[in-house]
Amino acid sequence: MEFMMWATRSMHIFSAVVWLGGLLYMGGILYPVLRYEQLTTSIQYVRIERRFSGFVWMCVWTSVITGVLLTLFSHRFVFGQYRSEWDYLLLAKEILYVLMMGIAVSGTSIVKRMESIAGSAEAGGTREDLIIQHQKMLRRRRTSLALGIITLLVSTRMVVL
Questions:
Q1: What is the distance of C-alpha 92 from the center of its chain?
Q2: What percent of the chain is modeled with pLDDT above 90?
Q3: N or C: the chain end with fewer CB closer than 10 Å?
Q4: From CA 139, how far away is CA 27, in angstroms rounded?
Q5: pLDDT, tens digit, for every residue of 25-37?
Q6: Measured between alpha carbons, how far is 158 from 86 in angstroms, rounded to an integer?
Q7: What distances in angstroms separate CA 87 from CA 13, 76, 82, 147, 156, one per listed residue?
Q8: Above 80 in pLDDT, residue 160?
């Protein structure tokens, strides 16, 4: 049982690090380069967003499954009872995670819109529509990154307790 908990905890931490690392890479390295090269309205950018969307969902589901397992097998967790700071931090972490999942769902729908815009044969307004969708995606990624950092800080406090 000890090995299973260790493996589950490792997978949980790894998926969180990969998710946040991906957001940092996209926001700190890839987007500035694409913006400088004026490629934020290109089909290549849309393809990158599609690939990253799959990457995010892989991390989301890994985090969900391992998080539920870690919670259920924790000696501190009692369903529906909030007796300690750890319990309240767990609740805060779950709420933050649900918000991040909502942003991931929204981001996936934006990517689908971007694909349909990029795939359309209409010449009028396509570039402007892609710019609008790109701006929406950037706002969601920044929000998700901020929530991820807050979640990481909450998780760190939970470990200390």
A1: 17
A2: 65
A3: N
A4: 10
A5: 998 999 999 989 9
A6: 6
A7: 19, 8, 5, 19, 14
A8: yes
Cα separation, 90 vs 137, whole angstroms: 28
Distance from C-alpha of 14 to C-alpha of 63, rounded to nearest angstrom: 9
- Rounded Cα–Cα distance for residues 57 and 46 (Å): 17
Buried b (16+ CB within 10 A) or exposed e, 116-137: ebbeeeeeeeeeebbeebbebb
Q: Which two tokens stand for residue 89?
A: 């931090």
C-beta neighbour count of 61 within 10 angstroms: 12
- Record the tokens describing residue 148, joined without a space: 């991820």
Distance CA 9, CA 85 (A): 21
How would you classify residue 154: left for phi > 0, otherwise alpha for psi between -120 and 50, otherwise beta?
A: alpha
The answer to whether 23 and 144 have CB atoms below 8 angstroms apart is yes
